[in-house]
Amino acid sequence: MAVIIDGKRISQEIKDELKEKVERLKADGKNAALAVIQVGNDPASCVYVNNKKKACAYIGIESLSYELQEETTEKELLELIHRLNEDEKVHGILVQLPLPKHINEDKIIQAISPKKDVDGFHPENVGKLVIGEKGFVSCTPAGVIQLLKRSNIEIAGKNCVVVGRSNIVGKPMALLMLRENATVTIAHSKTQNLKELCRTADILIVAIGKPRFITAEYVKEGAVVVDVGIHRGENNKLCGDVKYEEVFEIASAITPVPGGVGPMTIAMLMNNCVEAME
Length: 278
Hints:
This protein has ten helices and eleven strands. The radius of gyration is 19 Å and the shape is globular. Helix 6 packs across helix 7. It is an alpha/beta fold. The longest helix is centred in the first third of the chain and has 21 residues, at 7-27. The relative contact order is 0.17. It has helices at 7-27, 43-59, 74-86, 105-111, 123-131, 139-150, 170-179, 194-198, 244-248, 262-277, and strands spanning 3-4, 33-39, 62-68, 92-95, 159-163, 183-187, 203-206, 224-227, 231-232, 238-239, 253-254.
C-alpha cells in the first residue's frame, strides 16, 4: 500500500517559508505586487483567481486585480499588459487562461515581459529551461519536483515516464526530471504499447487529461505515481487521471486528487512572485 504524498501539507510549508522571506524583504524596503488579469467570468477561472488572491494575502504580496469583460479586445488586453510591463511596482503578471476565443493566447503570453512571467510560459523562459539556465519555470511541474524532493523520493538515476506532452505540464515536466538526473520517456496519445511503457517507470507522472484512465495494469509494483489530472466525476466528485483506489494498492507513493499536485501549483506561483521580487 502506498504512502500518500500530501500536497496540502507541503504547499503550506512552502507558503510559510515564503511568508518569512517576504517579511525580511519588506524590512529591507522591498515590496511585491502580482497583477492578475481575468477576461470574462469562466467559473473555474474565478475559483483559481480567488485562490491566487488568498495565497498572495497570506504571504504578504499585494495582488492587483484586473477583471475585464468577456468582449475586451485583444488590443485592449495587450495595452494593459504593456502598461504593467512598464510599471516598476508590479513584479509579476498573470493572465488567467483560457482566454475568450477572439484573443490569441500565444500573442498574449509573448507580450508579458519574461522578467514578470511568473507562470513560466514565455518562450524565453521555456528556452532557458531547455538549456538549463535560470528562469521562471511553469508552476505545476515545479510543484511536482518539490513534492518528490520534500517526500524524500530519490529522482536521480530513476526511470521516469511522463504521460502527456502539453506545453504547460508534459514538456516542462520532462525537462525538469532530466535536470534532476532521471532517465525520461514522454508518452502521448500516439504512443504504442502505453501499458508496457508505463510499467517500466519508477516514477510515473500522469497528465493525460482523461479521468481515471491509468489503472493498476499500467503501474509497476512499488512505483511512485504523480497524478496531475483533475476532473469532476459522477456525483460531482473530484478525480484525477489515475484510478486512485486500484493504483494505491501497488504504488509505493501516490498523490491524491484533490490535495496532491493542485495546491502545489499556487505555492510555486507564489515562489515565482517572490523570486521576481528578489
